[in-house]
Design a protein that fits this description.
alpha/beta, 5-stranded mixed β-sheet
Length: about 800
């Protein structure tokens, strides 16, 4: 029974039984056919013999015209079981006698010749083609009379003996029954023999293997596994495939059990290591959060004080020292931000803020920051933006800006201008693929600086890594910028590629997919619609740039016409704005002067020149709008055309005389920055209209923020912690609360919750509360908002950022 429940046993028996059954059917069918033919031939021979037996008696009866004797003879023969009827006719086919079933009265549909047997022939006579059993076999033989005197044979008639086809079938059925019984007995016998051998040789060993496999519990390696039955197969006398399989399986089980024990040990160690690593990571995050707060607090004092100091009257050397100190302090803040960002990314806590934004505006903002640096280092900074780039896409603008900042900053850092080589840094954008809902945009930063060797390119995007150790000593930096760029690019679904050769510069190619939507399409409004713009070029080398500018302007709806300066005359068709890419030469000066003289509306003429001749060109063409052509971004070009059309003149601050604005009355002297805490609070509270409450525990930050607020025209009261802050809020009438988050007694979070709870109970107006803190880790801003604060300002505080935040939340009475 176990065999019958075994899948392999059932399959083997089915295949064997099925095969043998098919062979048995074929053989049995052959035997049946052979038996049928044999029975039929036997019957036909019997009919032939029967005819020879009665031929002489029939001959005498016919010759003597003894019809009674003839009837008596055929009736006697008809009693034989094989015969169904007899008919005797004369030589002229006249009926002499008949008896039994001779098919009389039935219409013959088919007469089929069978063959010759003895002295006669046999035919198959069918009266109905669809009923073979009712057909008759007719044995016909001639009847001769032999003369005794001359031995002459005379044909005197014919005898027809009929046999029913059903008699043949009856005999065949008997033979068929014997054959079937024989075949069944053989089949069952063979099946039982095969069953015995299959069970012993195949099924029983496989059942043992199956049971051992099912009972094998690798999760319980301490328990003892029973392999006794399996060992019986292994150590059996037979040496076949199943023994080899069982032996290999036994070895495999023992090996697996040993390895599972090792894996379990390693898993326990790995779990412990993972927990230790997670704890270490959490400790690192907590440490960075604490250090961020502790570092930003003194940096807030340094940068804030330098910010205020820069607004006072200083000598040129003092201003230079202040700028240097402020730049150094800001660089420290940038390094701190990089360390925090790489920690957030590695911890998986950095989230992307995807919104609709303009790539061109991001590029323009970044370029404006680096133009002074490039000019100072005498490096040509160029920008090329693919005209097919969508004006608005959906993504994280801040992270795209951060990537460009790092790449362009590195390019400028490692590129220089020498007597043999002019330094170049180029920013290019291009559309790699564009679909209805997405655009793959490439941002390239190309320089001709020191380049990077092939060996050092492998690990360039790892944190705290630079191409060589000497690079850090010579150029500075932490090696975090490219690591952040690589990880941010991956987070946005893009990739970053580097192509570089040592001594020949580098090309960083960032490909990022950006979403397009109805919102981004609706944001693009043609700002230069129906404005006629004439573009002039002084040289064939500027034609390519002019073509790009033409595409920019046409995409904004402008009607653009291009000329060479030498081909343009003042009597050309009326234009809205004229934009000239100027290249200095005597001929170009004369042609430009003639255009200016011939056009009274000079405010709509823009002359773009290289930075090295910018001041000279402004003095040469005083009444025209002169701007820098290298670099000029898409946004700058569009805004320049728009401003010229709206007659918005640029204010040249370099030509203004500011001496009248400088007086001792306007100076803000910070010699009292060493005031003690009591004087700071007294000075802050001496103002009768102090409507801002500052809650800060650090005396230095108290001094600085009070000065910054005074500089911006605001006055405040000071509280040392959240407990005192809440009490002063209850007693006073303030428009705004500025609070640190981490303070003794009651911190800023708890103070905010208590104030919000009391506002809800008393149904009073909600006062804006702004967090002013050095915390900059992921989730800090969200924690402030959850506590009930309205905004978040990170230390060190920049005056511009502080002014914007106060303007947003402070409501003047």
């Amino acid at each position: 029974m176990a065999l019958l429940r075994s899948n392999i046993g059932l399959k083997l028996l089915r295949y064997v039984f099925g095969g043998y059954f098919a062979v048995a059917i074929i053989l049995t069918s052959g035997q049946l056919i052979s038996e049928y033919i044999h029975v039929k031939d036997t019957i036909f021979d019997e009919l032939s013999n029967l005819g020879e037996t009665i031929e002489e008696s029939l001959s005498k009866s016919i010759w003597n015209f003894d019809i009674d004797q003839l009837d008596s003879t055929i009736k006697g023969i008809n009693k034989v079981g094989l015969v169904s009827g007899i008919k005797v006719v004369s030589s002229d086919k006249s009926l002499l006698s008949k008896t039994g079933n001779i098919g009389e009265g039935q219409q013959v549909e088919l007469s089929e010749y069978v063959g010759e047997y003895g002295k006669g022939t046999i035919e198959k006579i069918m009266y109905d083609k669809n009923e073979t059993e009712h057909s008759l076999f007719q044995y016909k033989f001639p009847i001769y009379f032999t003369n005794k005197f001359d031995s002459q044979k005379d044909l005197i008639g014919y005898c027809y003996i009929y046999a029913n086809h059903a008699s043949i079938i009856d005999r065949v059925k008997y033979g068929f029954t014997l054959i079937i019984i024989n075949s069944v007995i053989k089949t069952l016998a063979l099946w039982l023999v095969f069953l015995f051998f299959i069970k012993r040789i195949i099924v029983d060993p496989l059942s043992v293997l199956t049971k051992v496999t099912q009972d094998l519990d690798l999760d319980k390696t301490d328990s003892k596994h029973n392999f006794d039955d399996l060992k019986k197969i292994v150590y059996a006398k037979e040496n076949n495939e199943l023994n080899i399989l069982a032996s290999s399986f036994l070895k495999m089980c023992n090996t697996i059990i040993d390895k599972v024990k090792v894996i379990e040990t390693h898993a326990i160690e790995l779990t412990q290591s993972k927990e230790e690593a997670e704890n270490a990571s959490q400790i690192k995050s907590d440490f960075l959060s604490m250090m961020s707060h502790e570092l930003r607090t003194p940096m807030n004092g340094v940068i804030g004080s330098l910010d205020l100091l820069a607004t006072t009257k200083q000598t040129d050397d003092s201003k230079d020292l202040i700028d240097t100190a402020k730049t150094s302090a800001e660089n420290l803040v940038f390094i701190l931000n990089d360390i925090l960002d790489i920690n957030k990314i590695e911890a998986g806590k950095l989230e992307l803020d995807e919104r609709a934004f303009s790539i061109s505006e991001v590029i323009d903002n970044v370029i404006k920051v680096f133009i002074p640096i490039a000019n100072k280092r005498n490096i040509i900074l160029s920008v090329y933006e693919d005209p097919n780039t969508p004006m608005f896409v959906k993504g994280d603008a801040m992270r795209v800006r951060q990537i460009l900042f790092n790449l362009i900053g590195n390019a400028l850092k490692f590129t220089s201008t020498t007597q043999k080589k002019q330094g170049h840094v180029t920013i290019k954008t291009s559309v790699i693929r564009s679909h209805e809902t997405m655009s793959n945009i490439s941002l390239q930063v190309i320089d001709n600086g020191i380049g990077i060797s092939k060996e050092n390119q492998q690990h360039l995007f790892m944190p705290f890594t630079q191409a060589e150790k000497s690079t850090t000593r010579k150029y500075g930096g932490t090696g975090l910028g490219l690591a952040i760029c690589g990880k941010l690019t991956e987070m946005m679904g893009g990739r970053i590629k580097l192509t570089s050769e040592e001594g020949h510069g580098s090309c960083f190619n960032v490909e990022i997919p950006f979403w397009k939507s109805q919102e981004t399409r609706a944001m693009h409004i043609e700002t230069l619609s129906n404005i006629q713009v004439t573009l002039l070029s002084c040289d064939d080398s500027l034609d390519e740039k002019l073509d790009v500018f033409s595409c920019y302007l046409r995409n904004e709806g402008a009607e653009v016409i291009s000329y060479q300066l030498s081909d343009f005359t003042v009597d050309q068709p009326e234009y809205g704005v004229l934009f000239l890419l100027y290249k200095d030469s005597d001929e170009n000066r004369q042609l430009t002067q003639s255009i200016l003289k011939g056009n009274p509306n000079k405010s709509r003429i823009i002359i773009a020149v290289k930075n090295d001749i910018l001041d000279e060109t402004r003095k040469l063409f005083k009444k025209a709008r002169v701007c820098c052509s290298e670099p000029i971004t898409r946004i700058q070009l569009i805004q320049a055309i728009e401003h010229a059309w709206q007659k918005r003149f640029e204010l040249n601050l370099d030509e203004l005389d500011l001496s009248e604005l400088e007086s001792d009355d306007n100076d803000l002297v910070l010699n009292d920055l060493d005031l003690d805490e009591k004087n700071i609070k007294d000075k802050a509270s001496n103002k009768p209209n102090a409507d801002i409450l500052l809650v800060e525990d650090n005396p230095l930050n108290q001094k600085l923020i009070v000065r910054q607020l005074n500089q911006l025209g605001y006055h405040c009261d000071v509280a040392d912690d959240g407990l005192q802050g809440k009490m002063m809020w209850e007693e006073g009438e303030y428009q705004l609360i500025l609070t640190d988050c981490h303070m003794p007694n009651v911190d800023g979070y708890e103070m905010t919750r208590q104030i919000r709870d009391k506002e809800n109970v008393n149904q009073t107006k909600r006062i804006p509360i702004i967090a002013v803190t050095g915390a900059a880790m992921s989730g800090d801003a969200e924690y402030c908002y959850e506590a009930g604060m309205d905004d978040f300002v990170s230390k060190p505080i920049q005056l511009a950022d502080f002014r914007a935040t106060l303007k947003k939340w402070y409501v003047h009475k």
